[in-house]
Amino acid sequence: MGGLISLKSFLDRFGHPSDGLLGFMVASYDIGCLLGAAAAFLWGDIAGRRRAIVYSCIVLMCGAALQTAAFWIPMYIVGRIIAGIGIGSVSVTVPIYVSECARPSWRGILVVSETTVVILGICLSNFTNFGFVYGRANLNGTEAQWRIPIGLQMIFPPLVFLMMPFTVESPRWLAARGRHSEVAQVLARLHGKGVTADSHEIRKEAELIIQTARHEAEIEGSWKESFTNGELQNLRRLILAGTTGFLHQVTGINVVIYYSQNIFRQVGLDDRLSYIMSCVGSVCFLVGSILPVFYIERIGRRKVMMLGASTCGICMGIIACTGAVSLYYPERASASSWAGAAFILVFEFSFGTGWNSMNWLYSSEIGSLRMRNKTAATQCLCHWAMNFLTVMVAPTGFATLGWRFYLVWMAITLAAIPFLYCCFPETAGRTLEQMDGFFRLYPQWNIRKVANAWVEEGAISGNNSASSHTKNEGEKFHRQEKV
Fold first, then answer.
1. Residue 453 pairs with which residues in a beta bridge?
2. Which residue, among 421, 301, 283, has the nearest Cα to 352 in the 3D structure?
3. In this structure, are residues 229 and 236 in contact, taking their beta carbons and an 8 Å threshold?
4. Staple partner for 84: which of 33, 264, 294, 422, CB 3.0–4.6 Å?
5. End-to-end alpha-carbon separation of the chain, Å?
6. What are phi and psi of 453, to 5 degrees?
7. Which residues contact 32 (CB under 8 A, 6 or more apart)?
């Protein structure tokens, strides 16, 4: 919402709501995202990946229309919640869809690209809002000044509708629904370059996917079984996915984004320049988010997450130090405030290079076929719940702890590094079916020595000899080759 909620025409329309109510009007979007993720958790596998994306976009458009046309606070809040439901649902489905359709060597690059487009949208919205708040003199004081930018979000869902006829359904979802005859045809289309459904490579890949779907169907017989650590280790996978959503938010990224303008004002910038600096921060975020495309498949997910946690934690510590210097050494307040503002930009860049894409990518890779939607939805539930909590808690935290509040985020982020190192297996270069094999062969939580161990494809379908061979080979802890 940027500076739109501070416009006189916006406040006049809604009767000058209190700060608390104004905050809830903004945060209600996160409640909708939470509900959307919950809906995807319960029913996301029914419609299929493509239709789920279309339905989510329709819901988003309805919510955007209500917000744009809102004349009362309840109408606006309902619109925010409905739009959030659409975003929460699509944020579950899209990374899964990309992961299930992509080759292992391209999976990370494509999911990172998808999340980078999200940051591009945030960047564009910041500059659009700035243009309408400060740039359109003929709109000043009119409701069009905030209704138009809110309504612009309805432009993009129709573009998705236009592109959907050119996409295919996820081959793994088709296998899970028993539509085995379509799997090879879809894989052939995804491979392209004249590959046919009858080729040896396609038939082998299709058979592996179908075999995995059948095997999981034999194992998973109830919801209770889906949340236990049986052969497929579903509970463990849910916890790992939820942890990525939690850690994504406790880096403090949304605290920085939401309150960066306050820090820039402390430097002495006016509202206009503070807004511009916030827009610059979103550009730093975008540039940082692009970079993982070039190294995500080379160095793997684990190192990127640990590096991201390290850099974000260090930046938070430095920002806290600048706040302390400003408080205890007033003669140095100007310099320390500028340093704090600079490290706000560095933090956003660092978060983009490390954590921005990792929770969406990792959670879409580690779930078993039948539980993949629920695994990704669990990550989204934790992500949006922590998003809401951090934004709501931040004002009290700043008022009570001041600069020490940044140390809380630093401590949690740095404390996560040993957990990431010990408990998170590497997913780069592995097929989704090989991840099933990994969790079967290594059910222990502490997997630091085997995080990169090679898993033979024979271990996936329950071939005892292959599984035994892989367990023995796992003692060598050799690095897998990239597909």
1. 479
2. 283
3. yes
4. 33
5. 43
6. -65, 140
7. 63, 80, 81, 82, 83, 84, 85, 86, 87, 88
pLDDT reported for residue 2: 60
Compare 69 and 270 and report the one with higher pLDDT: 69
Distance of CA 222 to the CA centre of its chain: 28
Buried b / exposed e across 158-194, counting CB within 10 Å, b at 16+?
A: eebeeeeeeebbbbbbbbbeeeeebbbbbbbebbeee
- DSSP helix/strand/coil, 217: helix
In sequence order, which residues have a C-beta less than 8 Å from that of residue 148 and are 6 or more positions away? Answer: 132, 139
423-465 pLDDT per residue, tens? 999 999 888 888 988 998 898 888 888 888 766 654 455 444 3
CA angle 161, 163, 168 (to 5 degrees): 105
Give the whole-angstrom CA distance, residue 474 versus residue 35.
41
pLDDT(467) > 80: no
The residue with greater pLDDT, 222 or 216, is 216
Backbone angles phi, psi at 479, to 5 degrees: -75, 135
Distant-in-sequence, close-in-space partners of 54: CB < 8 Å, separation ≥ 6: 160, 161, 164
**443 residue type, one letter:** P
DSSP per-residue letters across 105-117: HHHHHHHHHHHHH
Please report which confidence band the pLDDT of residue 140 belongs to, taking 50, 70 and 90 as the band edges: confident
- Cβ density class 215-226: b for 16+ within 10 Å, e for less: bbeebbeeeeeb
From CA 115, how far away is CA 134, in angstroms rounded? 29
Cα 317 to chain centroid, rounded:
24
What is the Cα Rg of the chain in Å? Answer: 24
- Contact in structure between 413 and 316 (CB atoms under 8 Å): yes
172 versus 47: the higher-pLDDT residue is 172
Residues 88, 180: Cα–Cα separation, whole Å = 30
Task: Name the H helices within 329-462.
Answer: 333-353, 358-366, 372-401, 405-423, 432-441
- Which residue's entry shows tokens 């494809």? 457
Burial class (CB in 10 A: 0-12, 13-18, 19+), 213: buried
Amino acid identity for residue 441 in this structure: L
pLDDT in the model for residue 225: 62
Residue type, 164: M
Please identify which residue in the block is written with the tokens 């995202």.
33
d(CA 83, CA 159): 17
Work out the pLDDT band at 223, boundaries 50, 70, 90.
low
d(CA 230, CA 430): 22
